[in-house]
């Protein structure tokens, strides 16, 4: 039941939104329309990982596999990288694994020059953690699918002399301290589970280039990309990768289990950039031609 005081004090949820808004940076975006692409592990690699069954997606050479469960299962190794980078954060506050559920309603599209487009208004990143979105129960053939919008990170000192980007937009980690000999030796101690000297429980497999942590610069709006994912694909944004808040497409909401590290320090967990359309323009948008609408148009997936 609402109390008399309702509205005078922000609730926990509202307080979080207020903090998020206060931490948001605004950058201007020129008018551009980016074409959506089919999600594919190779083209997505600079931004993170695509998690999918390599057998059914014809993606065999990329990953290592072994037999498991007395031969009744195939185990694909290291389908994504979940590394905790919070030791680089200014607060030094330790992070824990968080598994949250996002129920994402289908987003409103607008029509521009005859095609359906999604206007990109916000980008965000998690500087010290990868973030994995796993859709639940979405049929690969269903109209429901989702749009993954990502941008590279600009170098801090832009060659174009762009002043806006000379300073890191947010607190940056202090330079990494050299590890002592003792720490290095401890880091190389044998693994109790495999009897080898690595800290892994499974043999090494290639790491996609997008799994490494990104720098502290602003998003590179000139090179923004947009990928349409099916229900039988999950994705991981590499640590620090600029991305748009999840965009569900179709008629139904999508339930995602979202896995990441978090330490509860707002600026270290999530940083946002608001994109303001340059004067007189429409700003940045993603063209979904061929992906939304009738079944024939969705043949691309
Ligand atoms: N990606 C997305 O939809 N949202 C987030 O990353 C979040 O943590 O809010």
From TrEMBL:
- Bias kind Polar residues: ranges: 192-211
Q: Does the keyword Lyase apply?
A: yes
GO terms of biological process kind = allantoin catabolic process; purine nucleobase metabolic process
Checking SUPFAM superfamilies in the record gives:
RmlC-like cupins
Q: Name one GO molecular function term.
A: ureidoglycolate hydrolase activity
Name the Pfam families for this protein. Answer: Ureidogly_lyase (PF04115)
* InterPro entries hit by this protein: RmlC_Cupin_sf, UAH_cupin, Ureidogly_lyase, Ureidoglycolate_lyase_dom_sf
Q: Which residues cross the membrane?
A: none
Substrates-to-products reaction catalysed: (S)-ureidoglycolate = urea + glyoxylate
Give a yes or no for keyword Lyase in this entry. Answer: yes
Keywords (alphabetical) are:
Lyase, Purine metabolism
Enumerate the residue ranges of region (Disordered).
Answer: 158-179, 191-219
Task: Name the PANTHER family for this protein.
Answer: UREIDOGLYCOLATE HYDROLASE, UREIDOGLYCOLATE LYASE
Q: How does it assemble?
A: Homodimer.
Q: Which protein are we looking at?
A: Ureidoglycolate hydrolase
Species name: Friedmanniomyces endolithicus
């Amino acid at each position: 039941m609402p109390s008399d005081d309702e509205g005078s004090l922000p609730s926990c949820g509202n307080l979080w939104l207020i903090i998020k808004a206060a931490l948001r940076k605004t950058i201007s975006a020129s008018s551009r329309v980016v074409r959506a692409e089919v999600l594919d592990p190779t083209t997505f690699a600079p931004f993170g990982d695509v998690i999918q069954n390599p057998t059914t997606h014809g993606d065999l050479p990329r990953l290592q596999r072994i037999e498991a469960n007395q031969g009744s299962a195939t185990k694909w190794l290291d389908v994504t990288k979940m590394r905790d980078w919070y030791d680089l954060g200014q607060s030094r506050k330790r992070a824990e694994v968080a598994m949250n559920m996002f129920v994402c309603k289908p987003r409103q599209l607008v029509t521009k020059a005859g095609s359906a487009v999604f206007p990109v208004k916000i980008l965000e990143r998690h500087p010290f953690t990868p973030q994995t979105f796993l859709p639940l129960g979405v049929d690969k053939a269903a109209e429901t699918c989702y749009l993954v919008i990502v941008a590279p990170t600009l170098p801090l000192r832009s060659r174009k002399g762009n002043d806006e980007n000379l300073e890191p937009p947010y607190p940056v980690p202090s330079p990494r301290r050299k590890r002592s000999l003792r720490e290095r030796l401890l880091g190389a101690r044998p693994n109790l589970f495999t009897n080898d000297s690595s800290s892994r429980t499974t043999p090494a497999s290639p790491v996609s280039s997008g799994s490494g942590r990104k720098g502290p610069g602003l998003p590179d709006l000139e090179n923004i990309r947009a990928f349409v994912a099916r229900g039988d694909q999950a994705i991981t944004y590499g640590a620090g990768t600029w991305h748009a808040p999840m965009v569900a497409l179709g008629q139904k909401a999508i339930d995602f289990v979202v896995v990441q590290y978090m330490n509860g320090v707002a600026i270290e967990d999530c940083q946002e950039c608001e994109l303001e359309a340059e004067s007189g323009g429409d700003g940045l948008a993603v063209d979904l031609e061929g992906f939304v609408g009738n079944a024939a148009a969705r043949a691309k997936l």
